[in-house]
Amino acid sequence: MEIISPSSSSNNNSPVLATFLVVLVVLLASSRPASSQNQQSTFTINPGGAAAARPDGGKGGGGGGGGPGSFSDFVAQNVQHYVLSERKYAGKVKALDAELSAAEAAAERYVVSGDGKGKFRTITDAIKAVPEYNKKRVILDIRPGTYKEKLLIPFTKPFITFVGNPRSPPTIMWDDRAATPGKDGQPMGTMLSATVAVEADYFMASGIIFKNHAPMAAPGAHGGQAVALRVFGSKVAMYNCTIDGGQDTLYDHKGLHYFKNCLIRGSVDFIFGFGRSLYADCTIESVTKEVAVVTAQQRSKNIAEAIDTGFSFLRCKISGIGQIYLGRAWGDSSRVVYSYTTMGKEVVPIGWDGWEVQKPEHGPGALPSKRIGWSLVLSDIQAKPFTGSHFVYGDSWILPPPKSM
């Protein structure tokens, strides 16, 4: 796993929370791959994780080595790609995707209200009313209340927006788990457990609570995965939303995604998948008194679409109860980035592990000197490719959210 975490500006006697100011990078190969169906059938922390060898053949300690395929080469390639891209687009006017621009110009709004005061009583009915292969921005103005619905936004219905009142956000809630029997009587698995599944491009949400309220599973319990939100469509933006659950809360499945000012709550691997996503100014909370793991990113050479992916957390806050690992590698080249991020004392000093977590650690979360052995502190120039909307090519599609009526 590559984890870029900012290094602390404070000493070992810092207060409970420490804010990272520079960037630390780590690279780790997964000790075993997993699918979304059996992802957490076991959960133990590898006590030998800190001594594991790097994928480039190094033994740890410097994180840099020279030679073909080394971590230093990887960092240099990222910087070069970013510099070339900046030069290429510097003289061009930043423009939205043509189809997105046309959709925004023809926007229309549906009101959804459970009390019958809107055009639709349910979100399900409103989605059904959106035409197949829709080409307009359709805003579903969802009035306050709890909507007990399991939703799918199919790939044939792009440009849908959910918008709620931020002072009284509507809640979309369901309680399926991976072990829940499907229509064929067999366990539905992690992917189908989602309360809301977004398979369409250009989806947007603002001021919505996405919740899976299945009973909290013990870490690694078979069939305990319970997804609140699965995002498979590309160019998806989420603003001021709460994504609430336990194990596998947010399935950041695939595509370009932008999360801004969101609250994400969970326990084991509660942000996972192989999306290429930027989390800006988000709050990440552990809800388990046992060991929690924030991410399981699946960047892998074995999945063609996954190799250029990763999660970047910018100016976020990580806290909660129990002990928190920043992540563990789901794929062979998993990539997670933490920059300018505040980490509470609940974050264990080693930060992350390969796949098997067994032995909790202790201490404040922002202690880069305690991180895994093969770590590397990056300069601002080296960190730049990961720390802005350019990470998700946002100039062509990221727009501010519409307001609730």
UniProtKB/TrEMBL annotation:
UniProt pathway: Glycan metabolism; pectin degradation; 2-dehydro-3-deoxy-D-gluconate from pectin: step 1/5
UniProt domain Pectinesterase catalytic: residue ranges: 111-395
Presence of keyword tRNA-binding: no
Biased composition (Gly residues): 58-69
Biological process, per Gene Ontology: cell wall modification; pectin catabolic process
InterPro entries: Pectin_lyas_fold, Pectin_lyase_fold/virulence, Pectinesterase_Asp_AS, Pectinesterase_cat
Active site: 269
Reactions the enzyme catalyzes: [(1->4)-alpha-D-galacturonosyl methyl ester](n) + n H2O = [(1->4)-alpha-D-galacturonosyl](n) + n methanol + n H(+)
Positions in coiled-coil regions: none
Pfam families according to UniProt: Pectinesterase
Range of residues in the leader sequence: 1-36
Entry's Gene Ontology molecular function annotations: pectinesterase activity
Annotated segments matching region Disordered: 37-69
Enzyme Commission number(s): 3.1.1.11
Glycoprotein as UniProt keyword: yes
Keywords, in A-Z order: Aspartyl esterase, Glycoprotein, Hydrolase, Signal
Top enzyme category: hydrolase
Protein family membership: Belongs to the pectinesterase family.
PANTHER family per UniProt: ACYL-COA THIOESTER HYDROLASE YBHC-RELATED (PTHR31321), PECTINESTERASE (PTHR31321:SF81)
Free-text function comment from the UniProt entry: Acts in the modification of cell walls via demethylesterification of cell wall pectin.
Name of this protein: Pectinesterase
Protein's organism: Oryza meridionalis
